[in-house]
Amino acid sequence: MSRRIIPVADFSAAPVIAGPVQTPTGVLHDTLARPLRDLRISVTDRCNFRCVYCMPRAVFDKDYTFLPHGALLSFEEIERLARLFVAHGVEKIRLTGGEPLLRKNLEFLIERLARLSTPAGHPLDLTLTTNGSLLERKARSLKDAGLTRVTVSLDALDDALFRRMNDADFAVADVLDGIAAAHAVGLAPVKVNMVVKRGTNDREIVPMARHFKGSGAVLRFIEYMDVGTSNGWNMTEVLPSADVVTRIAEHFPLAPLDAHSAAETAQRWGHVDGSGEIGVISSVTRAFCGSCTRARLSTEGKLYLCLFASAGHDLRALLRSGASDAGIATAVAEIWQGRGDRYSQLRGSSTAETRVLDSRRVEMSYIGG
Ligand code: SAM
Ligand code: SF4
Ligand code: SF4
Fold this sequence. Notes:
Blueprint: E1 38-42, H1 75-87, E2 92-96, H2 106-114, E3 125-130, H3 135-145, E4 151-153, H4 159-166, H5 172-185, E5 191-196, H6 205-212, E6 218-223, H7 241-249, E7 254-256, E8 267-271, E9 277-281, E10 294-297, E11 302-304, E12 313-314, H8 315-320, H9 325-337, H10 343-346, H11 352-360, H12 364-367
Parallel strand pairs: 1-2, 1-10, 2-3, 3-4, 4-5, 5-6, 6-9
Antiparallel strand pairs: 7-8, 8-9, 10-11, 11-12
The structure holds S-adenosylmethionine and iron/sulfur cluster (SF4) (2 copies).
């Protein structure tokens, strides 16, 4: 049988620094006037799950070649880049992957990042997204290293369904224990992300809402997205967030809440009895590109300006070429100032731009969610 080749990574060259040195000012705007505020850093392309919508086993099987260790950014390299991004205005860093808790000694990286502060002297919001399988074991050391909060992915409470969705036989109980441990050590408020696939796990929406109501965790429902090219995404499997809210409100009355900030991706709804809130992230049905302030750094140091980008800017090549901090900061500034990405707004419009992206997008497990 012929194997399908999935373009998980691109091989773009190192950025060329075109203009004069740009000293970071703490505010950098792209072509759509969006500031650079968030940085997502993927620390590994490996994962112990094989979620059907992210790393389908048919593609990410035993013959799949993950990045060799030497290709990964070292902790020193990540810290150096993070410091320059923070000088340019980044206030929030999220570690992701793959499964970030699989990266050896991740706590050492967190300790380094936790020492950074914004130009105004504020500590960073330093968080991490995990599948939760190793969280019970690691919550205490993550907190002690300086992690602020944690987001845990959980797609179902029904154990058989959850095992089918992660396709690696992990039990719901492991993840719930991880959430409890995170809560206990103060990595709070814990956010719980559920990707909703219509026809697969949408029957779990109300049980999940019931379970986390009053628990202190903030449950968020994410529309299934067309990231990458390996998951065989189909619009018919997207359940619009509006339907999610309707289904929950039939059981538990909800009232809309204000956004914490203009860049917040989730629309918030509060339980009217005061027992907490839920959020919906409508990446497909209600694009939020206009307020997207996120950059993504892949495991091997490519900078992506959009989750749906097909090419990254090779900051690792720049780092390893011996570039100075001023040179790298200038390259980052020029890249961000040239950014015009807004894939979700254009999705389905079949412009030349989206047609190219549709065929060459990088995978979520490589770029980080
Ligand atoms: N392994 C970690 C985890 O699962 O939380 C971190 C990386 S994962 C790529 C980050 C987030 O992306 C998870 O919450 C996951 O559910 C979400 N995700 C992955 N593929 C997705 C898709 N096709 N649509 C929507 N969300 C997706
Ligand atoms: Fe792994 Fe997270 Fe992707 Fe699932 S969503 S396969 S846990 S990286
Ligand atoms: Fe940001 Fe790209 Fe998502 Fe739009 S599609 S919100 S620009 S990551």
